[in-house]
Amino acid sequence: MDPKGQHVFIPDRNNNAILRYTIDPLNGSLSLADSSNVITLPQHIGIDPFGRFLYVYSANGRELYQVRIDPNDLSLSISAGPLVIPPPASVFTPGLPVTDPLGKYLFVSTGQDEQILIYRIDEKSGGLSQIGIEQFSSESPLFMETVSIPGKQG
User: What is the mean pLDDT of residues 79-86?
Assistant: First the structure.
């Protein structure tokens, strides 16, 4: 969902599309606004907290793309990628790319490999630089979500 709560972006892997729906502010219903075929096999989508970029995981070779959202018409275009998620010891599907509430970091779960890949987000370009990997020894974190607690900025 975009930061203003007006649009939601949905991957449509079967049609190689990213769908953009508008959200009715009165009842929450969705209306298809646009379909964009910028990525093959989009599977998971994360959005930066400023609504400038989508970070899209493609099931086509474990690729992560940065997709620019045009501020005027909300059209999509690839601005960087693909970053290839490193091959794991086991077969996996990475989880949802998640940004922190300040837009400084992107986190991607590697699923069964029990790792979280950590990327720094360039504040101007939205580009990604991998800065770390966190290993977990318990159940793998397939999905993550970041939350912002009012008054608690980090």
Answer: 73
